[in-house]
Amino acid sequence: MEFSELIRTGQAQAELLRGPEMPPLRGTLCVTGHHLLLSPGPQATPDLWLLLLRSVDSIEKRVAGDAGTITLRCKDLRVLQLDIEGVEATLDIARSIEALSSLESVITSFPFFYRPKGLRLGEAWHFHPPERYYKRIARETRAWRLSEANEDFSLCPSYPRAVIVPRAVDDDALARSARFRQGGRFPVLSYYHAPRGTVLLRSSQPLTGRQKLRCAEDEELLRAVLAEARPGARGFIVDTRSAQAAKQARMTGGGTEAKAAYPGWKRLHRPLERGRPLQESFVRLMEACGDPEQSMDRWLSRLDGCRWLSHVKEALSTACLAAQGMEWEGACILVHGAEGTDSTLLVTSLAQLILDPLSRTMAGFQELIEREWIQAGHPFQLRCAHSAFSHTRPKHEAPIFLLFLDCVWQLGRQFPLSLEFGEGMLLALFDHSYASPFGTFLCNSEKERCLCEVRTRTHSLWSGLNQPKEQRKLRNPLYVPNPLAIWPSVEPQSLRLWQGLFLRWTHPPEPSEVAWEKVWQIATDQKTEGSQPTDSASEPQP
Amino acid sequence: MASAPTSKYNSHSLENESIKRTSRDGVNRDIGEALPRLPGETRITDKEVIYICPFNGPIKGRVYITNYRLYLRSLETDSALILDVPLGVISRIEKMGGATSRGENSYGLDITCKDMRNLRFALKQEGHSRRDMFEILTRYAFPLAHSLPIFAFLNEEKFDVDGWMVYNPVEEYRRQGLPNHHWRITFINKCYELCDTYPALLVVPYRASDDDLRRVAAFRSRNRIPVLSWIHPENKTVIMRCSQPLVGMSGKRNKDDEKYLDVIRETNRQINKLTIYDARPNVNAVANKATGGGYESDDAYHNAELFFLDIHNIHVMRESLKKVKDIVYPNVEESHWLSSLESTHWLEHIKLVLTGAIQVADRVSSGKSSVVVHCSDGWDRTAQLTSLAMLMLDSYYRSIEGFEILVQKEWISFGHKFASRIGHGDKNHADADRSPIFLQFVDCVWQMSKQFPTAFEFNERFLIIILDHLYSCRFGTFLYNCESAREKQKVTERTVSLWSLINSNKDKFKNPFYTKEINRVLYPVASMRHLELWVNYYIRWNPRIKQQQPNPVEQRYMELLALRDEYIKRLEELQLANSPKLSDPSTSPSSPSQMMPHVQTHF
Hints:
The structure holds two protein chains of two kinds.
Chain A: H1 3-6, E1 11-17, E2 25-31, E3 35-39, E4 49-52, E5 56-64, E6 67-74, E7 79-85, H2 87-101, H3 129-138, E8 144-147, E9 163-166, H4 171-179, E10 188-193, E11 198-202, H5 216-229, E12 235-239, H6 243-248, E13 265-269, H7 275-290, H8 299-306, H9 308-327, E14 332-336, H10 343-355, H11 362-374, H12 380-383, H13 400-414, H14 423-434, H15 446-451, H16 454-457, H17 461-465, H18 471-474, H19 499-502, H20 510-529, H21 534-538
Parallel strand pairs in A: 11-14, 12-13, 12-14
Antiparallel strand pairs in A: 1-2, 1-7, 2-3, 3-4, 5-6, 6-7, 8-9, 10-11
Chain B: E1 43-53, E2 57-66, E3 69-74, E4 82-86, E5 90-96, E6 108-113, E7 118-122, H1 129-141, H2 169-175, E8 183-186, E9 202-205, H3 210-218, E10 227-231, E11 238-242, H4 255-266, E12 274-278, H5 282-287, E13 304-308, H6 314-328, H7 337-344, H8 346-365, E14 371-374, H9 381-393, H10 400-413, H11 418-422, H12 437-451, H13 460-472, H14 483-488, H15 491-494, H16 498-503, H17 535-538, H18 552-560
Parallel strand pairs in B: 11-14, 12-13, 12-14
Antiparallel strand pairs in B: 1-2, 1-7, 2-3, 3-4, 5-6, 6-7, 8-9, 10-11
Helix pairs in contact in B: 6-7, 8-9, 8-12, 9-10, 9-12
Organism (chain A): Tursiops truncatus (Atlantic bottle-nosed dolphin)
GO molecular function, one term (chain A): protein phosphatase binding
Pfam family, one (chain A): Myotub-related
């Protein structure tokens, strides 16, 4: 293993500072292939402190006299300080961390070595989410079929092997439609809204280009969607770019669906921020949150200036728009931006949480993330390569998934009984999407994961999270199944900064856990006492 | 079950590209129910008007005016709107439009309320209907100017519980372990002769004679001498409250006052310095010398150290709240909301008040020294600081009755000028004496309850009902400026207490997650990052801010679990912080010994 070449020192004596509220740790510091270890001396507590090197976002070193200090800013937004004896040791450790934390190879990453007790490789329910989901909708409608046209990822490298498409459209037509869409992402079913018989689709932009090209199969595909829904059904194309940006995309071969070519479909533009501006918003937000000066009187305008909450608002508004189209207008919705792998997924997954009670359960939410983010080809490896502290210029990084989690948190805040999972689940997903011992968020697409054999050689995050010992941290003790749509208020006054995430390490987390524990006790006490009408409230559901 | 019901106001099509849903007008809509009337309430008139709802547009309705309330019921079939506004809430009534006014609904009345909203009614130009309504409303909303009684004196409501019995000063001091070797209860102010704005019963150092007290009174603004508010059960340090010393430009000294403060210090032998917190900004304290006031100088008070807490005066607070109203009613500032909020400085003031109270609480809880708190007159900022510090230190005040006692004691009995600050029944809406000092205190309590979701027995609704009846004039609780005036008017005999209403219906106001902890000191985080606007109070009239259409299951669940109700909205505040974030880093958090090791679950 070539790790040993990157490790420049065996060990050093160090003191670790973990933030204002935690006691410092002293001991022997040691770098391994995947971890930074601090082993307290025999006189102290036997606990070993461990940090996954992959989770280091940026590293700063300073030396003075015969000692040095390394500041590690982590992808989970923690800031750690190591005071190390010996200048040489400090520099060696810093260099080792730098080299090891930025390794790009997937198959040498820690998930391929992580073998936790109590978990078996390959025991996970989630291997075929589109298939599972298809089974669910096949009970409701015959209008859709499961196509394996992408079996070898030749139609679309970022789609899974199987996708759900209109029954009336055959695989050849899919292949042609794929050629007409950027990255081959032809329109596929994202969600079937059974109460109204309407559907949510997603795709990438059509490659109309300057010549305003058309594709008969692509048009036919969307026509079939409306025809299957109900005679005279209407459709809306929610384009997550501004009209201007969509028009400009024609110059580089992209574009939008021409009105005349897609009868029954109406285009709406809802520009959502993505890419670098979103990453910069995140960076500025963390600068404000971590500012030790606490320029308190300017905090609100600084928060405003970061625009993060505006992005939350826009994302939720657009998801509401898509959901309302299905629920109230009985319309079919197609969502896309340019590539269809970022803000598109944000909108489709949030719209499902608003409409679909099943996606708000613990299992349903995991399935949603697996199906709408991981299998749908959100490039996690590129987007989550760095978090808010990296000094390197962002290339493909963007906190789109974090924005999704924030929106879900806002939903949970406004509907505290309706989500089966709690804040702990969202925090865990954030941490694991940036750096994880599990393989779930590795790679950028299903195709890459197949090549790396991620599913057979790493453990799934879901099996990790679904262990009984984790449940109390992740579940919402007040959950009551709610069969209805949950429409959030999206006014700026209704949205809050997610303190539990963005200020997680700047104030002591312990009391919040204490409070959470108390709520659990109270909620479960009440249930066991049987005096609470929980059952009667949830029984007469349709 | 059907999907969320869509009414005229909340069905927005994609065609008009609106995603906002307005569902409710912030008022109850009960169809077909008669005009509610309290015993003692009489109907004066009714008129057909158009209510110009800022959220849903004009609605035709019938308005009923009684001697207590303005009640409007929609006459439109597709709207079940009801407005139910106690006349006490009204701050100002203006006529809009004249005889020559053109344009729809441009002629009528514009009513400014004290609770963050305005009401606008359009009337017909012919037939004097506006003049009638204006005159009747003016009469009954501002009874003082018309030699009419305030409604509280006409209210004949009966409750199972008598709220006037909630606060008994002797009992409360006995609960605190008083009198003891060092502190005595004095009746020197029995007839309000020593100080007409103080309560009859005071706790003072055992070693200070009544004559001493009289001499000290001469040197304190409005005779408000330092008296005990709270004593720490273990370390016996105390919180004292008073007004500013009458130092004046010449820097007058008063041996008796100096000696008196020393006597206070000596009640606790370990202490070599007494801490004086002057709530004002330094410059304001200096400026007060010009009008005969001032602060305790180092030269005169060797054994005391003085700190200024930089809290601004009633005028600054009034203007700040006015700015808050500007950005939330009727239209909520959309773009740059947070920057607009910042420019009101409201949260900054909240922060300063909380920070001051944390310092007081920390000083006392650490046993470092006893504390004297004052501002100018000692009835606004001083009341905020002592009551909030007591709330942090003493878990008893976090129960429903305990909180009522706290309000009754530190605010009502010690002469917070409710009548002047609120202007009950008074038409002078621009009175410079009006100020939302008590509202600011309740806001601070709400901020604490968000940071410590299990520490308070009461819920958000409890705080809101207190604020509603601060203005309503239905109860005698907040009437008049001080105890002597209340006694003269026989308020406890002639009116009903707000606590009667609340205590006979306690379940509605309970926080289901309350866990009683004895002796736990709460230090909220008074950083801007952890404070937020109390949206459920300040923006409650705007239907768009509400969670839209809480679904029936949730609704029913909440109804069934009346205990849980408001609390569940706050689950996100589980980030509870337990260390003081003071401007002074040297002050230390409470010692772990003050935390009770066991936690009782209360159900």
